[in-house]
Amino acid sequence: MKILVTGSNGFVGSHVVAALLKEGHEVFASSRTGDASSFNKQYPTYRFIQVDFTDPFSLHDAFEFVQPEVVVHCGAMSKPDECELNQADAYDVNVYGTLQLLLNAETYQSFFVHLSTDFIFDGEKGMYTEDDPANPISYYGRTKKEAEDAVAEYKFDKAIVRTSFVYGKPLYGRDSFIGLIAKKLKNNEPFKVVNDQQRTPTHGEDLAKGIRTIINKRACGVYNLAGKDLLTPYEMALATAAYLNISAHQLTPVTRATFQEKALRPLNGGLNIAKAQRELDYHPMSFAEGLEKTLAE
Ligand SMILES: NC(=O)C1=CN([C@@H]2O[C@H](COP(=O)(O)OP(=O)(O)OC[C@H]3O[C@@H](n4cnc5c(N)ncnc54)[C@H](OP(=O)(O)O)[C@@H]3O)[C@@H](O)[C@H]2O)C=CC1
Ligand SMILES: Cc1cn([C@H]2C[C@H](O)[C@@H](COP(=O)(O)OP(=O)(O)O[C@H]3O[C@@H](C)C(=O)[C@@H](O)[C@H]3O)O2)c(=O)[nH]c1=O
């Protein structure tokens, strides 16, 4: 199938592009800056188009050129703290940008697969299902909820994929939080890590495979594609130290109250993946397996 992937330079987008290319799809990768990958050297079915999806004219031309059967929208302003501090930009990219993509996708009746987040929840309940009510506590979360609402109005086939704390070996571009922890440990640097925020860390390859299944099955609706283990970032850091056989003495557990972040993050996060397991045969690796895949030299 002919698939447009936005946010292809990003952590999630790069894994999605790789998984789709491996299955022989015709992939049009798109990001705001130049192509950060080397896929054009490996896959004849790969193309890259540089597009700012907040620019309606360039987006219109890109869609006219690609005429995608499927759009996987990974592009976003994805750093909650940045969104909290730059709310107009966050709204422009995460909400207005998504709206622009939806308007163009309607012209080609594309199947629209939208990436969303556990940060649309307030973290009171935890282990959220697809049916739980959203109540974002950060501006990032608010923009992602508004984007979901826009996708819900889309007239043609659509899927909303919620995920959480994506990690793994970066294919190119930025590293994940696990990579940051490993670097701090290897450099014997002190590192404060929150221990009161529960997450279901999701390996990028699992997420990408789940999205590929959604595309192949044209599975419409909301799906949680997350990891199966619930850990705090501090517990992830301890597991990383243990795997690397490095002392954890430089790791200090802190709380959301004492670790002053710009954006509030849900305390009891975590996504229940029972629906994806049932309907998509989605069976993610354990965090221990994911850690090994991420850190193996
Ligand atoms: N990472 C995570 O833990 C989680 C991510 N998600 C969601 O997954 C998606 C991807 O996240 P992630 O991979 O981490 O994000 P990254 O920050 O790694 O990548 C963001 C991507 O979006 C592109 N982009 C940003 N603004 C624009 C724009 N105006 N026009 C075109 N492209 C743009 C960037 O392009 P360029 O680099 O060229 O500027 C980049 O390719 C997001 O929707 C995020 O909300 C949800 C839950 C967890
Ligand atoms: C940098 C840093 C972060 N942390 C905590 C904060 C946070 O809970 C966790 C990860 O921090 P990060 O800033 O890397 O990630 P964070 O922005 O919290 O991750 C979020 O990304 C967006 C895209 C999402 O949609 C969410 O699902 C979530 O994955 O670790 C520390 O404890 N110590 C630190 O020094």
* Associated small molecules: NADPH dihydro-nicotinamide-adenine-dinucleotide phosphate, dtdp-4-keto-L-rhamnose
- Basic shape: globular
CATH superfamily of the largest domain: NAD(P)-binding Rossmann-like Domain
Q: Mean of residue pLDDT?
A: 97
CATH class of the largest domain: Alpha Beta
Name the features.
single chain, 297 residues, alpha/beta, Rossmann fold, UDP-galactose 4-epimerase, domain 1, 2 domains, 7-stranded parallel sheet, two-stranded parallel sheet, 11 helices, 11 strands, 41% helix, globular, binds NADPH dihydro-nicotinamide-adenine-dinucleotide phosphate, binds dtdp-4-keto-L-rhamnose, NAD(P)-bd_dom_sf, oxidoreductase
Task: Draw up the topology in text.
Layout: E1 2-6, H1 11-22, E2 26-31, H2 39-42, E3 46-50, H3 56-66, E4 70-73, H4 80-85, H5 87-108, E5 111-117, H6 139-152, E6 158-163, E7 166-167, H7 177-186, E8 191-194, E9 202-203, H8 204-217, E10 221-224, H9 233-244, E11 251-254, H10 274-280, H11 287-295
Short description:
Keywords: NADP, Oxidoreductase. The chain is of the alpha/beta class. The protein is built from eleven helices and eleven strands.
Describe this structure in words.
The chain has 297 residues and is of the alpha/beta class. The protein folds into two domains: 2-167 and 202-228 and 271-280, Rossmann fold, CATH 3.40.50; 177-197 and 230-269 and 286-295, UDP-galactose 4-epimerase, domain 1 (Alpha-Beta Complex), CATH 3.90.25. Helix content is 41%, strand content 16%. It is built from eleven helices and eleven strands. It has helices at 11-22, 39-42, 56-66, 80-85, 87-108, 139-152, 177-186, 204-217, 233-244, 274-280, 287-295, and strands at 2-6, 26-31, 46-50, 70-73, 111-117, 158-163, 166-167, 191-194, 202-203, 221-224, 251-254. The strands form three sheets. Strands 3-2-1-4-5-6-10 form a seven-stranded parallel beta sheet, with helices on both faces. Strands 7-9 form a two-stranded parallel sheet. Helix 2 links the parallel strand 2 (26-31) and strand 3. Helix 3 runs parallel beside helix 5, helix 5 (87-108) runs parallel beside helix 6 and helix 9 (233-244) packs across helix 11 (287-295). The model has no long low-confidence stretch (mean pLDDT 97). Bound molecules: NADPH dihydro-nicotinamide-adenine-dinucleotide phosphate and dtdp-4-keto-L-rhamnose (TDO). Residues 6-13, 31-33, 51-54, 74-78, 93, 97, 115, 117, 144, 163-166, 174 line the site of NADPH dihydro-nicotinamide-adenine-dinucleotide phosphate (NDP). Keywords: NADP, Oxidoreductase. Catalyzes the reduction of dTDP-6-deoxy-L-lyxo-4-hexulose to yield dTDP-L-rhamnose.
